[in-house]
């Protein structure tokens, strides 16, 4: 667990943790003192005024020490969880997109929500459990001081119980692991459920099949594993409680036959043992939760290690722009023998893009065209630096893109993906200035009657799909990057806006010196491109001849496609 806590937090928290531990022990000593005072009165000591004052004073001190210890530990636990959440968020953002795709959204979501949540739940119990453990330790110390024989007897009992517990726990632990595995599957199903609600509501027999044959078996397996695991844990907890009485019986009824104790010691021992029942049984009931937390923690650690391994630390943004010095005569972007392969182990013929040689000049408007599944989006991902080439390399301003400058390379681009995500917040610091520009773009894209800017948020993102795409375009405009990429942006726009997009918005970007790459199936507007680049089965083909044949290039004789 400690490897997940940043060194700075560990350093900062050390004094607080030390105080919490000391306060915890002080509170437990107060508890033991309360037991001692009660037993002294029960053992025949005359209750004096001084004794009463001491008793209530110790009660108040116990309250103070225990509460401060619990609050400090609770705060430490929450700080760890807070930093864990932020660190995971950061690491995900620094992990190559390809790796995230391989990890899969359901798995990532299950870890970010359930595992971190389980860990947080255990962290909430940490202060009370810690208090109990300290109390048990102090009471055992007091017991050893009162009678080493009683302590030895009790200690032997505790060790035996711990060994038995360790052996018995193997079985529920296996079930707990199974429970957690089922959770990943449940998350996958629920994702399908939420994204496919409309399809399922339209067809009751498909919906019934989904519920009965997809969700039900997983939910049922989850329930079975969970119940089995909890059965053992509750058996262990109750048997532990019962055995505790056996231990009391041994110490009070059997042990004195061999090691006689004074009546005063016996009374105090009785009180101590009765006093221990509650903390011991509460610690026992937290065991399954702590177990779940440890399984969750293992998952978080595995993910953390995978992300750390994949993270390209060298690629963090530095102040110096490595692409500032342009190599004389170099195009803005150049692909040299770039290829990319999807690991399609389950496919008969895994898709391979490339090798691709392509140059794009500053201020050019390029249309990427081609059939479904030909590789346009894959090429776009390589252009954006979200996929790294397996072979060949990419150059920006004549400078080779590598792991050290990849992040700065990506900062040149703004994209609206076909499956874009619309943030409802303006994600930048200079919000006043950006809000002014956003209001202007809302008017330009005829969304001002629907959406306004409220603080740093768009008033709504509940819009039609075409309107949401326009909002995504505004978010992209606001980034004001030198290179724009639009993946089938116009696909769900009405004819009027489709025309506005191809004949006004893109030329306007070009006029502003931007380079624009458009993935498009709108052959009616192919003539608006400076250049057409066709992708077919992962390769660039000489489109000029093809397009000329189709009559699309009639007015653009002699245009080149790709190098
Ligand atoms: N994550 C992935 N894993 C494995 N194969 C993939 C993945 N994404 C795409 N592919 C494969 O790569 C090929 C090219 O996909 P890509 O999305 O680049 O096509 P596209 O030209 O953009 O298609 P469309 O016009 O339908 O959007 C497809 O045949 C698909 O099977």
TrEMBL record:
SMART domains: AAA (SM00382). Residues 19-292 form the ABC transmembrane type-1 domain. Keywords: ATP-binding, Cell inner membrane, Cell membrane, Membrane, Nucleotide-binding, Transmembrane, Transmembrane helix. It is found in: Cell membrane. One of its GO terms (biological process) is peptide transport. InterPro entries: AAA+_ATPase, ABC1_TM_dom, ABC1_TM_sf, ABC_transporter-like_ATP-bd, ABC_transporter-like_CS, Cyc_pep_transpt_SyrD/YojI, P-loop_NTPase, Type_1_exporter. It comes from the Bacteria. GO terms for molecular function: ABC-type transporter activity; ATP binding; ATP hydrolysis activity; ATPase-coupled lipid transmembrane transporter activity; peptide transmembrane transporter activity. The chain crosses the membrane at residues 17-38, 44-65, 149-168, 231-259, 265-290. Signal peptide: none annotated. GO terms for cellular component: plasma membrane. Residues 333-562 form the ABC transporter domain. It is a multi-pass membrane protein. Pfam families: ABC_membrane, ABC_tran. PANTHER family: ATP-BINDING CASSETTE SUB-FAMILY B, ATP-BINDING CASSETTE SUB-FAMILY B MEMBER 6. This is Cyclic peptide transporter. It comes from Caballeronia pedi. The lineage of its organism: Bacteria, Pseudomonadati, Pseudomonadota, Betaproteobacteria, Burkholderiales.
């Amino acid at each position: 667990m400690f490897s997940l806590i940043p060194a700075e937090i560990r350093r900062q928290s050390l004094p607080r943790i030390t105080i919490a531990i000391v306060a915890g022990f002080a509170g437990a000593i107060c508890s033991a003192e309360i037991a001692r005072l009660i037993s002294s009165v029960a053992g025949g000591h005359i209750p004096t005024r001084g004794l009463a004052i001491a008793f209530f004073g110790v009660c108040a001190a116990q309250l103070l020490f225990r509460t401060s210890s619990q609050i400090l530990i609770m705060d430490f636990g929450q700080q760890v969880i807070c930093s864990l959440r932020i660190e995971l968020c950061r690491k995900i953002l620094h992990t190559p997109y390809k790796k995230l795709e391989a990890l899969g959204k359901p798995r990532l979501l299950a870890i970010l929500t359930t595992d971190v949540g389980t860990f947080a739940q255990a962290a909430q119990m940490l202060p009370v459990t810690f208090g109990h453990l300290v109390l048990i330790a102090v009471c055992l110390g007091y017991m050893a001081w009162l009678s080493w024989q009683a302590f030895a007897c009790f200690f032997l009992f505790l060790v035996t119980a711990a060994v038995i517990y360790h052996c018995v726990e193997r079985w529920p632990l296996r079930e707990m692991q199974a429970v957690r595995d089922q959770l990943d599957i449940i998350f996958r199903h629920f994702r399908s459920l939420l994204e496919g609600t409309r399809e399922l509501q339209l067809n009751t027999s498909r919906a019934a099949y989904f519920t009965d044959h997809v969700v039900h078996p997983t939910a049922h397996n989850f329930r079975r594993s969970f119940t089995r695991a909890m059965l053992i844990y509750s058996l262990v907890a109750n048997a532990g409680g019962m055995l505790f009485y056996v231990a009391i019986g041994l110490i009070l009824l059997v042990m004195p036959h061999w090691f006689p104790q004074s009546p005063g010691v016996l009374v105090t021992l009785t009180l101590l043992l009765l006093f221990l029942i509650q903390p011991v049984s509460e610690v026992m009931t937290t065991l399954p939760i702590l177990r779940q937390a440890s399984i969750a923690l293992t998952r978080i650690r595995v993910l953390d290690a995978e992300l750390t391994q994949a993270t390209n630390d060298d690629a963090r943004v530095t102040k110096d722009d490595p692409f500032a010095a342009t190599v004389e005569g170099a195009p803005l972007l150049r692909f040299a023998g770039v290829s990319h392969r999807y690991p399609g182990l389950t496919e008969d013929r895994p898709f391979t893009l490339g090798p691709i040689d392509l140059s794009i000049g500053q201020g050019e408007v390029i249309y990427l065209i081609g059939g479904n599944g030909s590789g346009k989006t894959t090429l776009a991902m390589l252009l954006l630096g979200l996929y790294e080439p397996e072979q060949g390399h990419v150059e920006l301003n004549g400078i080779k893109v590598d792991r050290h400058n990849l992040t700065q390379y990506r900062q040149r681009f703004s994209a609206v993906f076909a499956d874009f995500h619309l943030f409802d917040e303006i994600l930048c610091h200079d919000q006043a200035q950006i809000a002014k520009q956003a209001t202007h773009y809302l008017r330009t894209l005829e969304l001002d009657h629907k959406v306004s800017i409220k603080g740093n948020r768009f008033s709504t993102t509940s819009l039609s799909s075409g309107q949401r795409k326009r909002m995504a375009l505004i978010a992209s405009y606001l980034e004001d990057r030198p290179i724009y990429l639009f993946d089938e942006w116009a696909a769900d726009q009405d004819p009027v806006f489709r025309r506005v997009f191809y004949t006004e918005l893109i030329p306007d970007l070009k006029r502003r010196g931007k380079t624009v790459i458009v993935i498009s199936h709108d052959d009616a507007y192919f003539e608006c491109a400076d250049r057409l680049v066709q992708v077919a089965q992962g390769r660039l083909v000489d489109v000029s001849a093809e397009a000329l044949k189709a009559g699309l290039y009639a007015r653009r004789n002699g245009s080149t496609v790709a190098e």
